[in-house]
Amino acid sequence: MSAEEDRKQAEKYAAGDILAILYRQHADITESLDRVSDSKGEERSANFAAATKFIKKHETAEQALIRPVIEKVDGGGETTDRNAEEKKADQAILALSKLDVDSTDFDSQFATLKSAVSEHAESEETIEFPIIEKARTEEQRIELGQQFLEAMAG
Ligand SMILES: [Fe+2]
Ligand SMILES: [Fe+2]
């Protein structure tokens, strides 16, 4: 989903609803990765550091607060897949952080990371979000949203 579409989805929920927060963060992630693609040199390094720092916080909070909700409902299969994708992204980020940001290696590995992150977010939105919407009332989702933001502020 494009950043614009994610933001539109977010508007369907109360501002503090965990689903609104997650949709908005997916939009933020897409835009932050685009900023890396669209820059060079020191600016690109800074954009890469900022984007990956945010992704890491987002994924860590999902693992702590979203996966337990999913696991209870589906028994764990999807949870394992999502956690594995996040671990793989982590490794890709580590490999990228060792490369010259203006190298062709960086370009190609970054393109791979970007599409993996986008596919991962898509799976969360199509598989996890409906489960959360069904399993939690709006009040509970707002509470979960609060916990999520607190976990990210860590
Ligand atoms: Fe994730
Ligand atoms: Fe996510």
Describe this structure in words.
By secondary structure, the chain is mostly helical. The protein has a single domain (about 5-154), classed as Four Helix Bundle (Hemerythrin (Met), subunit A). The chain is built from seven helices and no strands. The chain is globular and about 50 Å long. The structure holds fe (ii) ion (FE2) (2 copies). One fe (ii) ion binds near residues 62, 82, 86, 120 and 124.
Keywords:
binds fe (ii) ion, single chain, globular, Four Helix Bundle (Hemerythrin (Met), subunit A), 154 residues, mainly alpha
Describe the secondary structure blueprint for this structure.
Layout (H helix, E strand, L loop, with lengths): L2 H8 L7 H20 L3 H25 L1 H8 L2 H21 L6 H32 L2 H16 L1
- Top CATH class: Mainly Alpha
By helix and strand content, what is the structural category?
mainly alpha
Distance between the termini: 28 Å
Outline: globular
Uncertain ranges: none
The H-level CATH homologous superfamily, spelled out, is nmb1532 protein domain like
Secondary structure: number of strands: 0
The residue fraction in helices comes out at over 70%
Number of domains: 1
The CATH topology corresponds to Four Helix Bundle (Hemerythrin (Met), subunit A)
Biggest sheet features: none
Q: Please state the average pLDDT score.
A: 96
Order of helices and strands: HHHHHHH
